[in-house]
Amino acid sequence: MAAFWVTALVRALTSGTVVVLASVLAELLGPVWGALIISLPVTAGPVYVFMVLEHETAFVAAAALNGFAANAATGLFLIVYARRATDRSLLRALGPAALAWLAAAVPISAVSWTPLTAFLLNAAVYGAGAATTRPAATVLARSAVVARPRPRDLIVRAAAVALFVTSLLALSTALGPARTGVIAAYPVTLTSTFVILHRRVGGAAMARLASITIRGVFGFGLTLLTLHLLIQPLGAVLALAAALLVSLVYSAGLLAFQRRPVAR
To answer: Which residues, including other chains, have CB under 8 Å from residue 101's CB and lie 6 or more apart?
Structure first.
């Protein structure tokens, strides 16, 4: 029993620390950098690292594939929030977004996905998201909304993510790889970020932040796809390293694209 609680504490501290560091950077460096940082696998990353330590590679591969499919639900979450946040309260923007995620995630968890079908689903959702939120993202590229992080906000965010990671890993065996992968894809870091910042910087700024985040979270899906494809042939260490590399390269490319001069 003591070993269980020590392990749980390590998980909570590790995941919470990762989220705090990412949050500080995201809120200090401005909207474009912030959108890219919060779209990195700062929550799901620790989940999969700890999952590798507890389960066979086949379990992790299946969870990553289902997580990749469920990443499309996160796309819907962001689209709904970005479309509603501009002139609505936090509850009226975030509530429907969370319901949209749930409405998509439940049927996604019941389907047997292949890498191709999961990719096509993500491409359709994120392609639609990029097209429908393009004006907001363009405005954000010219803006400079920066929110200074407060210690209380960071503690709340870290605690929420730590609890999420620890609970999910504790239940992963009972849930199975499909449900574990889907739940691990829930955008807990995005949710906590929106809760904290919506009132502080305003719905219009958060709508623009979500618009760029849509483009970044597609890269998170590619990270999960990489992990699914490589973990069994290459092993956990190389597969996790390759997945992280894909995430970083995608984000760097997106940053370079966002920093291009905007046509007037």
So the answer is: 73, 74, 76, 77, 186, 187
